[in-house]
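Internal ticket #5521
Category: modeling
Description: The requester needs a full-assembly model to guide mutagenesis choices. All entity lines are attached below as received. Residue total reported by intake: 228.
Assigned to: D.W.
Attached entities:
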Amino acid sequence: SYELTQPPSVSVSPGQTARITCSGDALPKQYAYWYQQKPGQAPVLVIYKDSERPSGIPERFSGSSSGTAVTLTISGVQAEDEADYYCQSADSSGSAWVFGGGTKLTVL
Amino acid sequence: QIHLVQSGAEVKKPGASVKVSCKASGYTFTNYGITWVRQAPGQGLEWMGWITAYNGKTNYGQSVQDRVTMTTDTATTTAHMELRSLRFDDTAVYYCARGVAGKPPYMDVWGKGTAVTVSS
């Protein structure tokens, strides 16, 4: 079955830049999406179609794509950005959707 | 404002069935789909499936495809997810989310989740 691979954890100090990667063989053919989830809350969409930002999401959140990997970048990290982040995409046929395993972002 | 309001927590015995509902409001229900996602305690997100609201066409995830049925009621703008033959590892928070067409589709608004506990 298709898998998306994320690092389990990323740590940064406030004001620094956090980068979370997600890799998968079908990413050149399928868009990737990013969700933020804080403890006890439902996920929130922060990036769609690789690099688009929904309304209401701060400009410090951005996304990029290169080959079989996509990256979520949070510039000028704030304490409130501490959360789990999940990428989502699909296999090359588009029929099996998957989430990455999630990355816990810790703001030191 | 767009809202997805889910039904309340459930406790079920192994082998039973559970039906979770998701009432949508604030948008044209039939212009979108509904995706169901679950999250076991301390674990990541698992995609369960999608249903196109206007015609009921479904796409189920491999892990649950033999036990799940997703439906929509356009008259009441409500989606339902029924999971049968429950097992202990079905214990999770079940989320519904508005599905936006894409390649692949994605979820832009989420319900608050419904906790389902499978216990003997």
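Resolution: model delivered.
Comment from assignee: The mean pLDDT of chain A is 97.
Ticket closed.
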